[in-house]
Amino acid sequence: MDLHDPRLHAYRPDLADERLRGRIEARRFVAGEPWHVSTGVLSLRTGPSPDAHQGSELLFGENVRVFEVADGWAWLQNDADSYVGYADAACLAPGRVDPTHRVCALRTYLYPEPDLKSPVHGLLSMNAPVAVAAGDGPFRVLSDGAWVWAGHLAPDGEFETDHGAVALRFLGTPYLWGGRSSIGLDCSALVQMALARCGTGAPRDSDMQAESLGAPVPFDGNQTVLKRGDLVFWPGHVGIWLDAERFVHANATHMTTVAEPFAEAAGRIRAATGDEVTAVRRP
To answer: Which residues, at least 6 apart from 20, have a Cβ–Cβ distance to it below 8 Å?
Structure first.
């Protein structure tokens, strides 16, 4: 990845990640401190303002490196995918989470006690890392005292094997630019979340994914070379090919995640922008 890509490297003229010393110029370098996300989903913005664009999102339990906290905003980098941005510091807590499990359901609730009738305290999305402290019944208690339905958790390191099937579980999820959760996500986050549930780490944005994920597949428009799970890229867009009738992608035309024939999606993109497929990658 480009050393000077501000999405992946924390640097500003006045402050930069200590790990970049000697490679970029900045007035001050800091090592950063380990924090973690303490709310269900946290917006990661391009600037320290609620009006700044959302570049990505952070999930509950994800570990981050905080370089600065000023005026209620933390400038940080997500350990999970190296994405850099600004987040509400009130939704972070000092220290790291050492996960024992991850959310394997599309989403699940946090309860104050092991009772499904108790008032929920939050909502977690797929792939959120959690530290289970105890519990041997239908619920598990987390290290922060919240309870989660045990059937919605999988031991850390236990994965599924079909990222296409995982992606289909997001059908109907609203499209959200920069979104990365089961409540709303964009095209590259759908790919990232589906692969993560199958144990494969992926960059955050589609251009990064097209450069680095898996192996390239030569493609001249003939679908017969495609296999289930192949990632198909256009400029600024990506989806997952399952078969001739099912190409699953989060898109701004439908404003949701849909499965449709690949030819329909490709034809619509061509008509709207003139773009053709730029890459196919096989994770």
So the answer is: 3, 9, 10, 11, 26, 29
Helix (H) / strand (E) containing 193: helix 187-197
| Residue pLDDT, tens place only, 91-110 | 999 999 999 999 999 999 99
Give the residue ranges of the chain where pLDDT is below 70: 1-3
Q: Using the 8-state DSSP alphabet, how is residue 182 labeled?
A: T
pTM of the model: 0.97
Spatial CA neighbour of 170 closest among 60, 109, 254: 254
CATH of domain 101-155: 2.30.30.40
Alpha carbon separation from 140 to 94, 97, 125, 254, 257 (Å, rounded): 23, 16, 16, 38, 31
CB atoms inside a 10 Å sphere around CB 207: 18
Half-sphere exposure of 242 (CA within 13 A, CB side): 17
Q: Which amino acid is at 58?
A: L
Per-residue pLDDT tens digits for 5-24: 999 999 999 999 999 999 99
Rounded to whole angstroms, the Cα distance separating 141 from 111 reads 9
CATH topology of domain 16-94: SH3 type barrels. (2.30.30)
Architecture of domain 163-282: Alpha-Beta Complex (3.90)
16-94 and 163-282: identical CATH topology: no
**For the chain, domain boundaries:** 16-94, 101-155, 163-282
Q: How many Cβ atoms are within 10 Å of 273's Cβ, its own excluded?
A: 12
Residue of 184, 275, 185 whose CA lies nearest to 236: 275
